[in-house]
Design a protein that fits this description.
It is a single chain. It contains nine helices and no strands. It has about 200 residues and is mainly alpha-helical. Helix 2 runs antiparallel to helix 3 and helix 3 crosses helix 6.
């Protein structure tokens, strides 16, 4: 991989990872409601799941999904339904003072990793990244390089959203303010689910 390709891939990875999407909205809400430390497994799970997805796309899963309208539609609508469920759970979240660790908890590393497989933005990022930056002369080496570079850039980007959410905790400790914040996050998640219909 030459320096121009590396810089282009790094920029693509950064922009697609840092911009709002289902993962980042969920991490912002989780950081606010649970703090950065408890949200850390969620953020790591996003990047681990995405790394595995990149490898799978590089090995041909992405081609199957692109060529099969049925498989694509199933993943698309499962993702949308799950996003709506997450939007509802986010909207009805308790205030910070009322949170009972036994009743509510952030996503685990495994849950966050599995979520990537029904996340439309993650599929778009993985398929686009692999299509644009792997080479036919050394497909497997370039695939691994793309996956590693993308994952290394992805985690700090998604972790920033969780950190930003944890910084809002003090400001949102008033139950009414947090209630409106969670409502806003729920609406944004629902809108990201609706946007799937137009992709």
């Amino acid at each position: 991989m030459n320096i121009e390709t590396f810089l282009a891939l790094s920029l693509f990875s950064f922009v697609t990872s840092i911009t709002p999407g289902p993962n980042n909205i969920m991490l912002l809400a989780s950081g606010t409601n649970f703090g950065f430390k408890r949200t850390l497994p969620h953020s790591v799970g996003v990047s681990v799941g995405f790394f595995i997805m990149l490898i799978a796309v590089g090995l041909g899963v992405g081609t199957v999904i692109q060529s099969s309208q049925l498989v694509y539609s199933i993943l698309k609508y499962l993702g949308m339904i799950y996003l709506f469920w997450l939007a509802w759970k986010t909207t009805i979240s308790h205030s910070i003072e009322q949170v009972n660790p036994q009743e509510t908890k952030p996503l685990t590393l495994l849950e966050a990793a599995l979520f990537q497989w029904i996340n439309p933005k993650a599929w778009m990022m993985a398929i686009s990244g692999m299509a644009m930056y792997t080479t036919t002369s050394a497909p497997y080496v370039s695939m691994m390089l793309v996956a590693i570079i993308f994952a290394l850039i992805n985690w700090p980007c998604v972790a920033i959203w969780a950190m930003f959410g944890s910084q809002l905790r003090e400001k949102l400790k008033q139950p009414n303010i947090l209630k409106y914040f969670n409502l806003l996050m729920g609406v944004l998640l629902a809108l990201s689910g609706i946007s799937v219909l137009f992709q």
